[in-house]
Amino acid sequence: METRNIMIVGVGGQGTLLTSRILGGITVEAGYDVKLSEVHGMAQRGGSVVTFVRYGKEVAEPIVEEGCADVLIAFERLEALRYAHFLKEGGALIVNDWRIDPITVVTGAAAYPENIIEKLSEKYKVYSINAMEEAAKLGNVKAFNVIVLGLAAKHMDFEKDMWLKVIENTVPPKTIEINKKAFLTGYEN
Amino acid sequence: MAEKKIMLGNEAIARGAYEAGVKVSAAYPGTPSTEISENIVKYPEIYAEWSPNEKVAMEVAIGASISGVRAMASMKHVGVNVASDPLYTISYGGVNGGLVLVAADDPGLYSSQNEQDTRCVARAAIVPVLEPSDSAEAKEFMKFAFELSEDYDTPVILRTTTRLSHSQGVVELNDRVVPEDKAYERNPAKFVMMPGNAKGRHVYVEERMNRLMEDGCNFAINRAEYRDTSIGFITSGIPYQYVREACPNASVLKLGMVHPLPKKLIEEFASKVDKLYIFEELEPVIEEQVRSWGIEAVGKEIFTRQGEYSANLLRKVLLNENPQKEAAEQVPARPPILCPGCPHRSVFSVLNKLKIHAAGDIGCYTLGAVAPLSVIDTTVCMGASISTLHGMEKAKGKDYIKNWVAVIGDSTFMHTGVNSLMNMVYNQGTGTVMILDNSTTGMTGHQDNAATGKTLMGETVPAINIYHLCKSMGINHVIEVNAFDLKELERVIKEETQRDEVSVIITKSPCVLLKGNVFPNVCRPIPEKCKKCGACLRPGCPALTKNADGTISIDETMCNGCGLCKNLCMFDAIDCVPRN
Fold this sequence. Notes:
The complex is a heterodimer.
Chain A: E1 4-11, H1 16-29, E2 33-37, E3 48-56, E4 69-74, H2 77-83, E5 87-96, H3 103-106, H4 116-123, E6 125-129, H5 131-138, H6 144-153, H7 160-170, H8 176-187
Parallel strand pairs in A: 1-4, 4-5, 5-6
Antiparallel strand pairs in A: 1-3, 2-3
Chain B: E1 4-8, H1 9-19, E2 24-27, H2 34-40, E3 47-50, H3 54-67, E4 71-76, H4 77-93, E5 99-105, H5 118-125, E6 129-130, H6 135-151, E7 156-161, H7 162-165, E8 167-172, H8 188-191, H9 195-215, E9 223-225, E10 228-235, H10 237-246, E11 250-254, E12 257-259, H11 263-272, E13 275-279, H12 285-292, H13 311-317, H14 343-353, E14 357-359, E15 376-378, H15 384-396, E16 404-409, H16 410-426, E17 432-437, H17 466-471, E18 477-482, H18 486-497, E19 503-508, E20 521-525, E21 544-546, E22 552-554, H19 564-568, E23 574-578
Parallel strand pairs in B: 2-3, 2-4, 4-5, 5-7, 6-7, 10-11, 10-13, 14-15, 14-16, 16-17, 17-19, 18-19
Antiparallel strand pairs in B: 1-8, 6-12, 9-11, 20-23, 21-22
């Protein structure tokens, strides 16, 4: 199998770490070699953050490069736009239909682009969901990222049951049920 | 079968230290090195501490080594500058128990003030350097580093980079093997580095490095991989992975020890490949030495000295390929910012209002340099705020700094700021120093320091009191203020900056992300009272957005209820209410 390239992008503080832990967990569970790369430190403070996950028979570099991503998971619209060119031809772009203004927009130095999802759909295979709204319906807004992961999971190589098992083994015991529900919300969307 | 685990590079380094039988670890936090100590402390067999700075950490490790156990210090690249004084000299003295310095470089400047290359420091300090390429190697190289240290009587640097430290890969776990403590015998010729003794040791150091250069040709970590010999790469660390990715058929000489270089092995490899490339991030350390031996190679004339490398770099430069089909969109930047509820924002909003310049320092508060706060004028290195302000005064006179302050955090003050404050007092400066005390080392993710009353290993200890520390220097005006009390802050800053003597303002309020912090309140706009003046938006809190009609919205999932926006509103159009 050729190495598969997954990217998770979002805004520092959105909790990309849990998603990448579940992703890392499932690749090992499935018996693949895996490398992940993430951002710590200064850039985490409300900045644009990127996590790379690569799995396959034998993985060399830990990053996903421009034009190489099979799946791009974006927790925020502007971040989807920022990193869309990392997708390879035919790659899947999963977008949480949600807006967080960067400071440059708050101060009026820049404008938040309009119609991002429509624009992206012209060039890429886009799958979008308002995961915040869906998570609120489940009773826990924080579960939004697992909903997005559920939507992305359909474009990866693992069975539903394996996902649920890895989620069970990864998230805090108290949140297993809500996270499983969140995953299925995205998966069955 | 041995247990396998996905580990962060830094976690693997910690595991390597554990398996190597390390007994003492000292460090000062700094991205990308911090998680090394945070993982070491999970092994109760190792004594681990946060030292106030990297020099102290290095010296603690040196002491432990001299006493006969395996010891290590870890720090970011610029921390090595602080630790370089003991490092350069212990290179002469050598070790008793194995001694390893883990230095984390930051190509690409993810969280640093420069892009320096620790291999240059190692050449100057005459110390061997190992460089792993993934988590599995990081663990194994740590163990080899300690063997090398003891076999060749030398401190060893294990160099990592942000990409390695913050990547995860599969690691096979082994048991901890603790070598017997080395006996301690008094040996001034080795450990008292006065001129007569150091002269003798310098002879040894040169002989040692020559021996390593020879023996390195047979180290398993220096490995020639022969494939297609029309192209050959000499590379190491993370760049090795990019070569494997972009040019899987090329021959590679993978160097695990990047200083000193295994000359014969390199000569042999160079003779067997038609075209030789040297692929190393940052400085041409390997390249310049290889060329000095008369070997033809291509390096920095086509590969940049700046930033991180990638497989795409090789594809573009060497193979004339580019997998990227779509251009990147021009989108608004999303730079890092202070968190909602951050006490620094409150302090900076006052400095901004009073149009006061700040000599800054290293920490979250460096973010006060960017719009809309735009308060910090200078950032050089840890502790520099106070001393640079002092320098300005001595150059331009005391009136010149009446609208200046030095801004420094509690951890940075304990690191080296305290020395600069002593200097200001001693040399009769009149500067105003603001210590933003948020009870933690914030930017690196909440590490304790001597002023917090907690150690890395979780013990509760007496906290060094910053107020009394300043008072003990004979500073008459040391004032503590709540960081969110805007009126009092304004009054105190106005008063203290006008004094003809040193004053210290300690602004107190814990970091908003500190564990155990609870936020019972949220701020809520009252649109009918809003005069659309924008005063609340001025400090740039990310929880606030301006609506199309000029009123504001507050994202309650982000708001921590600090009340800064409410206090800035002159029309009572923001309320601070209990969270639902």
